[in-house]
Amino acid sequence: MVPTIKDVARAAGVSTASVSRVLTNHPATSPEMRERVLAAARELNFRPNAVARSLRSTGTRTVGLVVSDLLNPYFTELARAVEDTARAAGYSVIVGNADEDPAQQDHYIRILLERQVDGLIVVPTVDTSPLLREAAELNHNLVLVDRPADDVDAPTVLADASSAIAELVDHLVAGGRTDPAIIAGPEHVGTARVRLEHFRAALAEHGIALRPERVLHGDFRAASGHDAMAALLAAEPRPDAVFVTNGSMALGVLQLLAEQHAADPLLVPDDIALAVFDDMPWFTLLRPTVTAIAQPTAELGERAMRLLLARINGTDLPDGDALRCRLTVRDSTLPRRSA
């Protein structure tokens, strides 16, 4: 296992902050402290990485943004909000697309740190990231947005979907839907698990158990939504409602429904109700229009950038309460005409 700054601090009997000062040649470091840290680093074969090197210089007026998937319109809007806020403050933004790949995420983080950006905003692809944790421990200017990361001590900007999902379930049950399914995101992604947990808990409030066969996992991409919907429609009996937990997967679901229509017409909402987490502008152009939960995407990006600017300027702002999502009920979840 590659030694970390925590390992060096433990071997030298000092804090990680002391190791950070030595690695960055901070003037407030005694010769004795410096020798202890460097001796421990040599013994462990520790090599200062991009995180440590990036701390030696600041003031580039650039920040880095690493998002999970730029093909997802949600992250495109988020990036735009970050860029608009940064530009207004005199900063430029360099964007990296992790493509939902932890290795690619770390690749971009290293590159951005080596370019000595003044700070980073990251949408974590997984719950655990040693590189992000080390960046936070070295007091790099770091803000997380949309998804949390375990053991990373950094401001985190999140959306709260609980009340909107509860409202959606109330609406579905009131319309006679008692056997719903969910197309959830990857199990290793925190937001995917949270949306599933909220959906299950809201159903339980109505005395409805979410059956295991009604839970399918996609990868937040259109193809996985298509395949998951095909599996649900092949089941006997079919669910009476489907909640798709992101917009990209919903695109695949809608494609499958269009294909299905030629061979075995399936009417929405009479045969099955459809709701989506993520509201898309074109949802109102479809027939039926699509019920959706909208995230406060622009506000998330703006808040994340303002938190980062505060850290760059040497001040700390509170993370603030999670920003609430909003349900918009449209035709795709109306009660069956025979109900």
From TrEMBL:
SUPFAM superfamilies: lambda repressor-like DNA-binding domains, Periplasmic binding protein-like I. Residues 3-57 form the HTH lacI-type domain. Keywords: DNA-binding, Repressor, Transcription, Transcription regulation. CDD domains: HTH_LacI, PBP1_LacI_sugar_binding-like. It comes from the Bacteria. The keyword DNA-binding applies. One of its GO terms (molecular function) is transcription cis-regulatory region binding. PANTHER family: HTH-TYPE TRANSCRIPTIONAL REPRESSOR PURR-RELATED (PTHR30146:SF148), LACI-RELATED TRANSCRIPTIONAL REPRESSOR (PTHR30146). This is LacI family transcriptional regulator. The lineage of its organism: Bacteria, Bacillati, Actinomycetota, Actinomycetes, Micrococcales.
